[in-house]
What does this fold into?
Amino acid sequence: MLMTTRDSSSGAESSRNRALIQQVNDNHRSRVADNMVKNVGLIQEINGNISKVVSLYSDLSSNFSTFFHHRNDNANAKPTN
It folds into this structure.
């Protein structure tokens, strides 16, 4: 379930970023000064969203590695009688 939550979170961020990038492109093509100023905030939001996704996948990688490390430790443990 945790992976599903992460996948949906990263998917939502990616979808949001696609919409933001389209808006940035539209604003840039318009060459209207106010739209160019709006792009600063939009690009900052895109960067923040990318950071969130990177963090999610970094945590996932760490958790995955820890899981298998503990699994191998348990498999290699000598039985106690």
Q: What stands out?
A: The helical segments are 2-30, 33-76. Residues 3 and 60 are 8 Å apart (CA to CA).
